[in-house]
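Ticket #278: bound-state structure for iron/sulfur cluster.
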Amino acid sequence: MPNLLAVPFSFSQSSLQDYSDCQRRFELRHIQQLHWPAEETAPALENEKRQQEGQFFHRLAQQALIGLPLDKLSPLASGEHLSRWWLNFSQAFFPITEKSLSGARLLMETSLSMPLGGHRLVAKFDLLAIHGNKITIYDWKTYHKRPKNEWMKVRLQTRVYPFLVASAAAHLNGGQPLAPEQVEMVYWYTDFPAEPAIFAYTKSQFERDQADLATLVERISNQQEFPLTRDEQKCAFCAYRSYCSRGQQAGHWQDAEVEAEAENAIEINFEQINEIEF
Ligand code: SF4
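RESOLUTION: The complex was predicted; output attached.
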């Protein structure tokens, strides 16, 4: 069967993570674009509620960062989880970050795109803060369990985001180049406000990511077969379970290795995003 990957294809951390978790999932979701109606986690309603509140949290955080007063936004933060996340954001993240980022140029909900192996590598960022001689990438996570840093470190997002920002650093920094060491990635957990995960970036990581991502994209481009994962635990939280005959029952959302993220809940259409190309 020929590889029907669109050319150019927009590879994101999310599609690459799908490939890394299960090649068949990548094929079904991103090549065949098969929308299979199974729930990814159960109970579906609780999961859906968290996702909606997560999306709304992202919007509120963005509005706070563009300067809307917190007391005007706070009444909008109603909802079981959202009210807690917002309290943490407005009492912990915002005052500290407002001070540390004083004078920084803030780019919210910004996308970057770069060519890679005849395709594109794309990402959408919650917040990029360009300050002094540094760029900090912030990403909000509404996980109910704080993941270990070792686990986050190997996620494709922790590689793709700093790589793209380091590649675009001069463009973002008014023409002045920055070394990969001047890029850092911060995951801020809405339920664990005092425990962000901070990852520094280095030249050697940049070179490793450049080589690995190019190899991965080339491999996917030339691949004919996309096998099902052998790790059937991945199937418990996958929408294609019944399609793949890997069970009917969705795993409980509290047991999911990572919850469906707000930005992934809505399919991001990178073709329609007004992104910065460099
Ligand atoms: S159900 Fe399992 S094998 Fe099928 S796409 Fe999902 S993770 Fe892969």
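RESOLUTION NOTES: Residues 262-267 have pLDDT under 50 and may be disordered.
TICKET STATUS: resolved
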